[in-house]
Amino acid sequence: MTAGKKFNRNMKVENTLQEKLIKKKLSLFRHSKHGFGFCIRGGKEHGTGIYISGVNIYSKAYREGLTVGDIIVKANRKLFHGLSHSEAVQFIRAQKQLQLVVVSRGILPEQKLKYTEYQWIDCYGELCSPLRSSLIEARKDNLRKVNVVVTGNNKLGLLIRGGSEFGLGIFVAGIDENSIADKCGIMVGEQIIESNGVSFLNITQKDASFLIQNSKIITFLLKDVSKIPVSKIVHNHL
């Protein structure tokens, strides 16, 4: 069976499920260059519809009831069935207001992950032992909350590394001197466990960046692991 036929079959099954699920209608708007407070995953190139993969808990989208796992059926009367990921992103970014129709499955489509071998460095740039990711997920002790407010045209000044596409969490890899992140005490070598209540244990780097960049008020849940992943070799699973 070709990949195209397999994707078509997946989308037909998904469409049948959408017809049986209860639809939700949401009315959203955004100010100036700020986003709508959510990020998406999927598209026809992956054989799926367009899914909500993250929602900022301080956004109107969250208050309206948009949740991770919702499938966008329609936006401003435009059907999202058959759209690629880039087509969906371009359409949403071009809108000032969104009239969304979504259905909720409560789960996200699987992504083909890349298997990556890593070296790890400590906060001084020296090679160190690898981080056991299972340890971070299993132990929730020694966590700290950091509240951040980004005002005006100021930037957070935070560089992140990692992401679920690499089989990793999200780590603080750099802090701009005298930036908001620096003044709030965020440190290189910390792992971001949550941001505004959204778990960062299984999130892509792109989605994590989107949620952080589109938030003016952020509550981070951090764990000091004192090390950072450095990409070495990436193997694509075909």
From TrEMBL:
Signal peptide: none annotated. The keyword Cell membrane does not apply. Coiled coil: none annotated. PROSITE patterns: PDZ (PS50106). The gene is WHRN. InterPro entries: PDZ, PDZ_sf, USH2_Complex_Protein. It comes from Hydra vulgaris. It comes from the Eukaryota. This is Whirlin. It is found in: Cell projection. Residues 25-107, 145-215 form the PDZ domain. It holds the Pfam family PDZ. Keywords: Cell projection, Repeat. One of its GO terms (cellular component) is stereocilia ankle link complex. PANTHER family: PDZ DOMAIN CONTAINING WHIRLIN AND HARMONIN-RELATED, PDZ DOMAIN-CONTAINING PROTEIN 7.
